[in-house]
Specification:
The protein is α/β, with parallel strands linked by helices. Helices cover 29% and strands 27% of the residues. It is built from nine helices and 16 strands. The protein has helices at 47-54, 125-148, 164-175, 190-196, 228-236, 261-265, 280-293, 296-302, 311-319, and strands at 7-15, 18-26, 36-45, 65-66, 70-78, 89-93, 108-111, 117-118, 156-158, 180-184, 200-203, 219-224, 238-246, 269-272, 303-307, 326-330. Strands 3, 5, 6, 7, 8, 15 and 16 form a seven-stranded mixed beta sheet that branches. Strands 11-10-9-12-13-14 form a six-stranded parallel beta sheet, with helices on both faces. A three-stranded antiparallel beta sheet has the order 2-1-4, covered by helices on one side. Strand 12 (219-224), helix 5 and strand 13 (238-246) form a beta-alpha-beta unit. Helix 2 crosses helix 7 (280-293). The longest helix is centred in the middle third of the chain and has 24 residues, at 125-148. The radius of gyration is 20 Å and the shape is globular. The two termini are 13 Å apart.
Length: 333
Amino acid sequence: MSESEPFTALIVDETDGKRVCEFRQLGVEDLPDYDTLVEVEYSSLNYKDGLNVSGAQKIARRTPLIAGADLAGIVVESSDPARWKAGTKVVVNGWGMSETESGGYTRYQRVRSEWLVEIPEPFTTRDAMAIGTAGYTSALCVDALEAWGALGDGEVLVTGAAGGVGSVAVALLAAAGVPVAASTGRPSTHDFLIGLGAGTIVDRNELLEPGRPLQKERWAGVIDTVGGVTLVNALSQIMYGGAAAACGLASGNDLPGATVLPHILRGVALLGVDSVMASQAKRKAAWDRLARDLAPDVLASLSRVEPMSALPTLAPQILQGQIRGRVVIDVTA
């Protein structure tokens, strides 16, 4: 389509003091005044998007705002044409999109050129959103554990393993030859996780009951998407010198009952992983890992495509743990 034509976007706004999320017709002139225009082909559904679209939590800090935490598309024009030529396939993850900046649930978006990452071969724009913010965050977590030296000495536990971040993390760790334990509360996902490379399935209930500050050493490392008591228990089970890469808070943002004992008696590290404002160097390394280690058949098994019109229905489903793997959003439908 031509950028001169009106297009549909999903807008978060305030009406009579109430938060609403609705489809509206926009033009390019309604977009932010940034230096690069992208024709968006796909976005994706992340947990944060579920909160935003459903209204379960006020993710958007200002309104009106186009929802969608990430996007993949084609550069139309840029004030930095030497670096970002028209036709270049690009992905944008984070940078405040859907919170303080307009995001990816739209046919066109203007972004800052420094936010862009060129999509590496062999990925398409659809592939990039099958990975999305969740998969990119997974790669950041694997990179963080590798940099700490927490890969290669035993099993790595992935919590919330059937979700978007967790499922890609399982696949990446398995591709790197790391034995993986996948924690999930859904028996229906066991075959899915084993197919991704998990060698052990851990019932999430094992990690939900408060335990001793130091428990039996089980894991060389942990990728945690859950937080709360789950993360406290996982930290207490990490082997000497290991680490947990924490990137989520599906179970809460507190650490009830946590102590410093795993950290000062076993040298365990808690590594915070932020995907929103990560440096370009970290972003490139993460996408390079994804391009190297995420096989096309695995990526296909992780994702499905849904139309943008289905977002109001999909948003509560991801909050209720009913979404397996990744949902790619076709912004043209």
